[in-house]
Write a structure and sequence with these properties.
CATH superfamily of the largest domain in chain A: MetI-like
Structural class of chain A: mainly alpha
Number of strands of chain A: 2
CATH topology of the largest domain in chain A: MetI-like fold
Shape of chain A: globular
Number of domains of chain B: 2
Strand order of the largest sheet of chain A: 1-2
Strand content of chain B: 25-35%
Number of domains of chain A: 2
Shape of chain B: elongated
Largest sheet of chain B: 6 strands, mixed
Bound molecules: adenosine-5'-triphosphate, magnesium ion
Order of helices and strands of chain A: HHEEHHHHHHHHHHHH
CATH architecture of the largest domain in chain A: Orthogonal Bundle
Number of strands of chain B: 21
Radius of gyration of chain A: 27 Å
Oligomer: heterodimer
Helix content of chain A: over 70%
Structural class of chain B: alpha+beta
Number of helices of chain B: 8
CATH class of the largest domain in chain B: Alpha Beta
Chain lengths: 332, 375
């Protein structure tokens, strides 16, 4: 069969099955299980109305349970069992083994660095870009340019920036932009991604480059929502542009800044692709997600790998809750 | 010496002229009200005085100094915005302190000024609240307080009461009047749509229309001696009736043959050269009196609709052609007039005469052609 036809058929069956499920499940509930007839008609209607929401939510709850909740429970179980002993329960052994590995602590430290640097820089640059692009005629073009990296996958961005940091031997022309500039200025080419500690920041720049666009778009909308009269009142009150920005505008969009910050924080905690594509955690650039991947899929050690996954989840959860809380508050 | 002088001030946005030839002298301690139809440039003029809008022509002086290019904060003005424009993230106290902190005033003096403003406006128990926890009227008081602490030479208000409900508007209007009384030296400029606000608050009203000033004068001056048809119809409610006619006798008093058969005598003097001129006579609805059949009348017509308001009865006459209907306002309750023919006349002192839209009282002033309708 033609693949396009196959696709259409799949859509038709899928949508049809959904509609069919809701329609027939509803019919059965109203006509067969609790018919609105007979001596108990009133009671039956009430009962049907109590069950109906669950009936409609069931497919979603089931799918989410299967693909989200079950893996969490399973990962937790795996993290408490051992492969060598045929999956026997070993308590927190995997965790203590992981904690004794320097590579884990390196990943932990790097993740914390990412956590501090990337959300802060992305939000700051985003705010700056939002404020500046709102003031100029070609602001919308500038905005599109800044936003564009958002459309690139992390791996794609990693490849692009790997080229930026590319190093060739001294006697050949440099194709990496950074080394080309350095060579142009008369310096010796550097292997940027192998310089410990600082290479972390070279990786972070990639994510900042991507996330600035996101921050800018959200913050720009927030800045536009500030009542113009409060700015004018501040002008009359004698505030200079910096005071207007930091004392009038920024405080008014603080809730949005927090949401942007925490959203980027969540992305950062899960950071994997960029590190995987650019250094694969070598030269002291390991991060938790890549560490987990190493253990789980390279070393095949699902015990420690799952333990790492659980650690990541524990780090993400509180920020996620806070983020949702803030976003809800702002919507009100 | 005038405190605030506008000389030939103009404003244009690109090729659009919003205001032109604005000449105005405002003395210290006056409360000037700008009124005019929507879009006539009241806010623009106020914002030019504030410095929020660039002056594109002419000169603005405050206290003898040209301030065209002086930033708002150095003009000695304070502004109260229509939507209050309180800083939402600051408490009432911080809102009032903001300008003073920016100006690096000593803390003790800041506290003293905030204290004083809070006392005048009864904001004491609200000082630590955020604006969102205040009612509309309270927010307005805070906005005024924020101006007071700066002790400006000129207060600017842009429709400060228009977001308040009717009862609160009256109360706040009275508060503003009292505030003005408490600060006799401060100059206030006040923009409003509301005639009652204009009439009750103003020491002088500036009627803006068609990009210029239609007339400047005290409230009663505008009411009793409007300079042109626009002001005549803009001030007063319902609007003044205009009836076409022709001058048939001149002198200390002027006699006009009114279209439709009536004859009007006006206390406005006219010159021999005015004989035969086509004019409009203007009579306010409340100045009409009913006359018996057979007696001299200015206007007679069939009553189309009556509105009994208790203290007065409004008579709407059948419109002739496409004109606005003539409206009469009779004291007391009058029943059974609907469908009747009623004859009206008026005291000559209350009959205005306009030639070429300009009142004969002001024949020495240049004619202002205002094409916008007053209502
Ligand atoms: N930025 C601008 N560009 C072009 N025209 C403008 C601009 N701002 C205002 N105008 C025009 O200037 C005129 C005066 O506006 P303004 O806001 O001063 O009117 P207003 O008398 O305060 O009206 P309202 O009573 O409705 O508040 C309007 O016709 C408006 O369309
Ligand atoms: Mg306005």
């Amino acid at each position: 069969m033609n693949p396009a036809l196959q696709g259409l058929l799949t859509i038709a069956i899928g949508v049809g099955a959904c509609v069919g499920y809701f329609y027939f499940a509803n019919q059965i509930l109203d006509k067969v299980i609790f018919p609105a007839r007979g001596p108990n008609a009133g009671r039956n209607i009430n009962r049907a109305n109590h069950i109906r929401p669950w009936l409609f939510l069931f497919p979603a709850i089931f799918a989410l349970g299967l693909y989200l909740a079950y893996p969490v429970v399973e990962t937790l179980r795996l993290s408490l069992s051992d492969r060598e002993q045929g999956g026997a329960f070993v308590g927190l052994d995997n965790y203590s083994q992981m904690m004794s590995e320097p590579k884990f602590w390196e990943a932990m430290r790097n993740n914390m660095l990412w956590l501090i640097v990337v959300p802060a820089m992305s939000t700051a640059f985003g705010l700056l870009a939002a404020q500046l692009t709102d003031r100029i005629g070609w602001g919308n073009i500038a905005k599109s340019l800044i936003f564009m990296p958002m459309a690139i996958s992390f791996v794609g961005a990693g490849v692009i920036w790997k080229l930026v940091y590319e190093t060739r031997p001294d006697d050949i022309a440099q194709i990496g932009v950074l080394n080309a500039i350095l060579a142009g200025l008369g310096g010796a080419p550097q292997t940027w991604l192998t310089i410990p500690f600082w290479n972390n920041f070279f990786l972070m720049i990639v994510l900042v480059w991507i996330q600035t666009g996101f921050a800018m778009v959200i913050l720009s909308a927030a800045l536009r929502g500030i009542p113009e009269e409060t700015v004018e009142a501040a002008i009359v009150d004698g505030a200079n542009p910096f005071q207007i920005f930091f004392k009038i505008k920024v405080p008014q969009i603080m809730p949005t800044i927090v949401v942007v910050w925490t959203t980027i924080t969540l992305t950062v905690l899960k950071i994997f692709d960029i590190v995987f594509a650019m250094t694969n955690g070598q030269w002291e650039t390991q991060v938790l997600a890549n560490y987990m991947y190493d253990k789980l899929f390279r070393a095949g050690d699902w015990g420690v790998g799952s333990a790492a996954a659980i650690i990541i989840m524990l780090l993400v959860s509180p920020i996620l809750v806070w983020n949702v809380h803030n976003a809800r508050k702002e919507m009100r | 010496m005038a405190d605030l002088v506008l000389t030939d001030v103009a404003k244009s946005y690109g090729s659009v002229n919003v205001l032109k030839h604005i000449d105005l002298d405002i003395s210290k301690g006056e409360l000037i009200v700008f009124v005019g139809p929507s879009g006539c440039g009241k806010s623009t003029l106020l914002r030019m005085i504030a410095g929020l809008e660039k002056i594109t022509g002419g000169e603005l002086q405050i206290d003898g100094m040209v301030v065209n290019d002086v930033p708002p904060s150095e003009r000695g003005i304070a502004m109260v915005f229509q939507s209050y424009a309180l800083y939402p993230h600051m408490t009432v106290r911080e809102n009032m302190q903001f300008a003073l902190k920016i100006a690096r005033m000593p803390k003790a003096e800041i506290d003293e000024r905030v204290e004083k403003a809070a006392r005048i406006l009864q904001l004491h128990n609200l000082l630590d609240r955020l604006p969102k926890a205040l009612s509309g009227g309270q927010r307005q008081r805070v906005a005024i307080g924020r101006s007071i602490v700066r002790d400006p030479k000129v207060y600017l208000f842009d429709e400060p009461l228009s977001n308040l409900d009717a009862a609160l508007r009256v109360a706040t209007r009275i508060e503003i009047a009292q505030l003005k009384e408490a600060m006799p030296d401060s100059t206030m400029i006040y923009v409003t749509h509301d005639q009652v606000e204009a009439m009750t608050l103003a020491s002088r009203i500036v009627v803006l229309a068609g990009g210029g000033i239609a007339q400047v004068g005290s409230p009663l001056e505008l009411y009793e001696r409007p300079e042109n048809e626009f002001v005549a119809q803009f001030i007063g409610s319902p609007a003044m009736n205009l009836l076409a006619g022709e001058i048939t006798a001149t002198g200390d008093r002027t006699t006009i043959a009114v279209e439709g058969g009536g004859t009007a005598v006006s206390g406005v003097p006219s010159l021999a050269g005015d004989m035969g001129k086509k004019v409009n006579i203007g009579i306010r609805p409340e100045d009409f009196v009913e006359t018996a059949e057979g007696a001299e009348h200015i206007f007679s017509g069939r009553v189309n609709i009556t509105e009994a308001l208790g203290e007065v009865t409004l008579l709407y006459f059948e419109p002739k052609g496409g004109d606005d209907p003539v409206i009469g306002k009779l004291q007391g309750i009058h029943k059974g007039l609907r469908g009747q023919t009623v004859r009206l006349s008026a005291d000559p002192a209350k009959v205005h005469v306009f030639h070429d839209t300009q009142s004969l009282l002001y024949r020495d002033r240049p004619v202002k052609r205002i094409t916008t309708k007053a209502h």
